[in-house]
Amino acid sequence: MKKIFLVLLMLLNLQAKSFFSNDDQKEASKYLMAVKDLIVAAQKTRGATYSYANGNENAMMLVYMFRDDMNSAIRTMESLPLSKNPIIGARTTTISSAFVKLNSKALKMKPNEAFDAYTENIAQTLLLAQSVSQIGSEKMSPFGKKVTSIMMETILPLSEWMGQLRAIGSAACAKGGATKKDKIKMQILMSKIAKLDQELQIKMSSAIKDNPSNFSPDVKERLANAHKAISHYLSITKKEVMKDKTNYNPDDYFALATDTIDSVIALFDIGHAAINEDAKGWF
């Protein structure tokens, strides 16, 4: 009777775990983490550069610190097995070269030109993330594919819209007010952020419901906290920053935005851990 119970227990959990361990799934998830780290570091570099170019001299030290984080992420990407894939390897080399070139001249460029150049390079990195999601997840379990899709197609784009808002908002604070163009850009970004936040809540809740054992015990709380942080971030932006004149400290706004983005990126890390848990399998 005991043996029958154990067999039934295993069968009930087959949806949550692969029957055999999946080393390919683990390797893909490692690469996804490195791509995420590059995107986050590039977003911070863009924001600090734009803030500095608009008069916030305190941002200079952050620029160089975030550039170091970018270089570290690129080195990690290049060291992983998935970089040997012809498509991924070629795109990584192109993106790496573009960021190195941009970093060498960004502080001498006009603020908007530097912002646009970083945004274009980040967009290319997001396309790389899409390639990793498609190629790297070929041998993943259905659960791994579902969570990878959330990480790459919802969480990373959400962090990018928030990163752009952080850069424009902190620059507005540094200038002492938002221009009409700034306000339009911020309003568009806020709408995109609110929409993707709702999408994240729905998709992540579905993944948790289907495979709760793969996630950390506090995942629902972390998901709710991310939503609260985003709502607060958008509220502060609307009430304190989208104004002709503002006294809001640019460093405080940058920190608020970064903390909010970190709460979303934490869900990326939770997804990564869940994929690794699923990849353990039964044998």
UniProtKB/TrEMBL annotation:
Residues 37-263 form the Nitrate/nitrite sensing protein domain. InterPro entries: Nitrate/nitrite_sensing. Pfam families: NIT. This is Methyl-accepting chemotaxis protein. It comes from hydrothermal vent metagenome.
